[in-house]
C-alpha cells in the first residue's frame, strides 16, 4: 500500500491535478474551434453551388471534430478516480480516444478531397452558360468530361471563391488532423495504464523480494 508520504503517490496526484489544466482542455478547445470553423466553411461552400458534392464540402469532418471536443469537455467534468474505479470514466476516455482517431481519418480524407479538387480547378477552362459555370480540363477534347457548377452566374467569381475555400479547408483540416493525432498520442502515452487490464508487475517483484529475504 502507498503511504501519504510516498513521493511517487504525490507525483501521481500532482500530475493528475495539473493534467486538468492542459489536457484534455487544450485539445478539446482547439478541436472545438477548428471543428466549428470547418463546419461553417463547409456550409458556405455548399451555398456557392448546389452541384458541389458532399466530399467537396467537408462539413461532416467539422461535425465529427466538434463531437470529439464535446466528449473531451465531458471528460473534464468527471472527477478523477484512481485505477479506473468508475465505469463512466473509462468509457468516456475510451470514447474520446476512438473518436479522436475517427476525426483524424475524416480530416485526412477532407484534405485529400480538397487538394484533388483544387488541383483540378487550376487546370479548368470555364464558361458561363445559362446561369451555370461549365468547366473542362481539356477544351480540345470533345469527349472530355465537363464539370458543371449550378447557380453560378459569374465563373470568375465562383472559381476564385472556391479556390480560396478549398485552400482554407486544406489548412484547417490539416491542423485539426494534427491536433487529433496529438490528442491520441498524449492519451496513449500518459494514460496507457488506464487501458491496461491485468496483473501489474511491480507488486509481484516486491513480493518475490520479500520471499527471498525470508
TrEMBL record:
Localization annotation: Membrane
Transmembrane segments in this chain: where?
25-48, 60-82, 94-115, 166-188
Instruction: Tell me the keywords, alphabetical order.
Output: Membrane, Transmembrane, Transmembrane helix
Record the organism. Answer: Charadrius vociferus
Report the InterPro entries cross-referenced here.
Answer: CD20-like, Sarcospan
Mode of membrane association:
Multi-pass membrane protein
Record carries keyword Transmembrane: yes
Q: Name one Pfam family in it.
A: CD20
Cellular component (GO) terms are: dystrophin-associated glycoprotein complex; sarcolemma
Q: What is this protein called?
A: Sarcospan
What broad taxonomic lineage does this protein's source fall under?
Eukaryota, Metazoa, Chordata, Craniata, Vertebrata
